[in-house]
Every structure is written in C-alpha cells, then in structure tokens.
Amino acid sequence: MSVVLARIDNRLLHGIIVTQWAPESGSNRVMVIDDATANDPISKATMKMARPAGNAISIITEEKALTNFKSGKYDPEKLLVLAKEPKTFLDLVNSGVKITKLIIGGTTARENGIELSKRAFADKDEVADYEVLLDAGVELVSQYVPADKEVNVTKEFLESRAR
After folding, report:
1. Cβ contact 143:106 at 8 Å
2. Whole-Å CA distances, 99 to 64, 109, 123
3. Predicted model pTM
4. pLDDT below 70 — which residues of the chain?
C-alpha cells in the first residue's frame, strides 16, 4: 500500500481534486474517509460520480479504513486519501499507515482558530493534532492547488500563528 497523496479538504472530492491533484499524484484509487458521507447514500452516490478517470474510489468510514489498511486490502494500490480533519490522519498514522506528507487544502474558518494560509484554518484541537503528526515525522504543508507555493507548517509556524 502506498499513500501517494494525503489531503485535508472540507469539500473532500471536488473539481480541483479530480482535475489537478489526482493526475498530479499518480493515484489509482481515491479514498474518501468521512463517516457522514459514507453513511449518506445520496452524498456517497454523488461523490462516486465525480471519481477521477483511471481511479477506483472508496468512500468509507474511518473504522472501515482502519480495518481495510490493517488487513492489507489496499497494499497493491496507489492511494490519494482525503479527509476533513487532521484527527483522521493521526488515527491512520497511529495505526501504522505510512504517511510522509499531509497537504492541508481548503478548510473553513474556525471560531477562535488560526489561519494557516489564505484557504486553510485550524482550531486548537486541530493544531494539537498537527503537532503530534509533526512529531511522528509527517511533513505538513498548506497548498490549495498544485500550482500554489507550499506553505511549510512547522511547530514554530503553528506557535507563531496561535499568538
């Protein structure tokens, strides 16, 4: 199993993912990990219609994702993994999934949150999750589209934004 791209995006699978990130990643499967979407047949069916050409798609709960990773179901795949929150990626990393880089894409403004970039925000719980991910060796960057310059998200960066 190879996670070729891991991304936080509040919209999960949408046009920019389909037309820019999926081709850039070289993935052959898009995995959307979101309990609400996975448990909503209409949202799930709609999202499946948007799958990038040449990619299979999985829209699953976090529990199912963890089970599938543990069983080796995705070992031969090149995965583009999408979720809305850093906690999801932290849970994956803590269960042994190798994620070397996490791209923080479009997220909505948070009450009492901090701005990571023009289109990415985090609240204090998310900042704590990002810090644990950094400690686990995951590189964090904020980047909306592949053509944008990456904003390197380090502990020092998070601390400076939280002031």
Report:
1. no
2. 18, 25, 22
3. 0.95
4. 1
